[in-house]
Amino acid sequence: MAETWLVVGLGNPGPRYELTRHNVGQLVVDELAARRSEAFKQHKANARAAETWLRPGGPKIVLAKPNSFMNVSGGPVAGLVKFYGIDADHVVVVHDELDIPFDTIKLKVGGGHGGHNGVRDVAKALGTADFPRVRVGIGRPSGRQDPADWVLDPWGATERKNLDILVGDAADAVEQLIGEGLLAAQQKHHAPRV
Fold this sequence. Notes:
By secondary structure, the chain is an alpha/beta fold. The protein contains six helices and seven strands; from the N terminus they run E-H-E-E-E-H-E-E-H-E-H-H-H. Strands 2-3-4-1-5-7-6 form a seven-stranded mixed β-sheet, sandwiched between helices.
């Protein structure tokens, strides 16, 4: 039987949040589904999910978007993990990252949550922080804007020009992480862009 990976895009539900910085993880999962012409269906784990393959023959991937708000993402993720029988080291969490500049992607396994409440809740629900993460840089606000407001704002005009490229690169990073391993994905995506 082919191994199964769960790829979770963190975000908030509903049209109000759809195109905000906090939802970039869901945009990446949408891109992965679009590449495979897959549609999301409601799952009993309080998430929308699509079952597909990285490439013909495997590995199997379950793309998922929790229906819950970001700060309580752990319940849906734990429900999907239990339903599919997936270990934490095969749960890829894709999320926005304030401490990484916009248009930058970083990958890691484990470590702290860096103040990201969605990641914190997933780690709590899974009972471990040792899961792979694709961190999509959104940068910090300039001036005095509260970061909590910044992440819930829509993308700015300049960001929107490069957003499709960023989302595509993050989707590439997920595919490479699953297909070739963390180190190969880090070597490609941590390198300075040319």
